[in-house]
Amino acid sequence: MKWINLLNQVGPHPPGKNLRVDTASAAVLVMRGDAEYIDDPATPDVDESLGFVFTINGRSGQVDLTKADLGLSKVDNTSDEEKPISELVAAELGGKLSIADAPDVVAAAVNSPEVKEALDAAYAPLMPDTGITYDGSGNVQTVTENGVTTTYTYNPDGTVATDTRDGVTRTYGYDGNGNLTSITVED
Q1: pTM over 0.70
Q2: Number of domains in the chain
């Protein structure tokens, strides 16, 4: 058994009293907003003398509800393989991809020249054009970033002697242990 609390006057039953109802009756009353479910049937407001709800929407006895009784007359959610669909819908469905083909199609779209050009244009300013050259000992000789070149020279022990960038030369000084001790800037 379910218990409901009447929220509005329903038939001869007074509002605010809890009634025992069968599931179908309770569902209709709750859906229509005339009642709410009660979790505890032992509440002090229970009036068992009112008994079961025997009428729904003024009908008594066994009541079969239709979609219209619930305000759902325009709803049709039954599936039917033979149900016809419009030519427009059929054409749209025919143009859809199957799930099995989707990964290849997505990869092809991402790897297209148009996508690569768009990505290059968007990210080129963030990724500098860089070039590096090395001397015969494997030391970095020049670094070019966005058209600006820095040139390096080295001491016999492999430490950086100078770097020159945009006409400005920095000369590096070291102690006997090879630790950097000074930087001199010359224009």
Answers
A1: no
A2: 3
